[in-house]
Amino acid sequence: MRKLILAIIFLGSIVVAGSAQEFQIACTNGYNNNNTFCCGYTKANQANVGVIKFPNFAPPLNVGVVYTWYAIHPDGPKTWDTPVSARMVPLPWSGEYQVFVMIHFIDKTTLRRVSSYRSNTVTVKALACEETKEAGTH
C-alpha cells in the first residue's frame, strides 16, 4: 500500500511538472524581434509580454484567475498582480530583465488557491540608446 501511494505521488508530480511546461510567455515587441529596447520612462520603453500557451487546466466556474508578473533586474525587482494575461513591463534601467509570471487559480468562495503555475522566463534587454545605437531609433 505504501508503494502504491508513493507511485501515485510520483506520477502526479510528473503530470504537474509537464503541465507547468505548457505555460509559456513571450515578448511581442522589441527591435528586430530580439527583445531589445531602449531604456527610459516612456511608452516606447516598455516590453509587451503575454501568455502564448496556457496551462492545460480547466478551472470550475467558481474559480478566478490572478496573474503575478515579475521583472527581475540587478537594480531592483518589480511585481504586479493583474487579472489579465499580458503586461506592459517598464524598462527604466539599462541591462537585462528576467520576466516571468505565476498564474494562480483562486476559489472565489474561500479565496484559497486551487492551483498555481509558473511560466518560462523571458530575457529582455534594455540599452542606454543615447550611448549605444545598436537598438536603432524610434
Give the gist of this structure.
The chain is mainly beta and 138 residues long. 14% of the residues lie in helices and 43% in strands.
Mean pLDDT reading: 82
SS content category: mainly beta
Uncertain runs: 3-8, 13-20, 132-138
- Number of discrete helical segments: 1
Please give the radius of gyration in angstroms.
Answer: 19 Å
H/E topology pattern: HEEEEEEEEE
Strand tally is 9
Strand proportion: 35-45%
General shape: elongated
| Straight-line distance between termini | 65 Å
Q: Biggest sheet, in brief?
A: 6 strands, mixed
Residues in helices, as a percent range: 10-25%
Task: Please tell me about this protein's structure.
The chain is mainly β. It has one helix and nine strands; from the N terminus they run H-E-E-E-E-E-E-E-E-E. The strands form two sheets. Strands 2, 4, 5, 7, 8 and 9 form a six-stranded mixed sheet that branches. Strands 1-3-6 form a three-stranded antiparallel sheet, with no helix packed on it. The termini are far apart. 16% of the residues are buried.
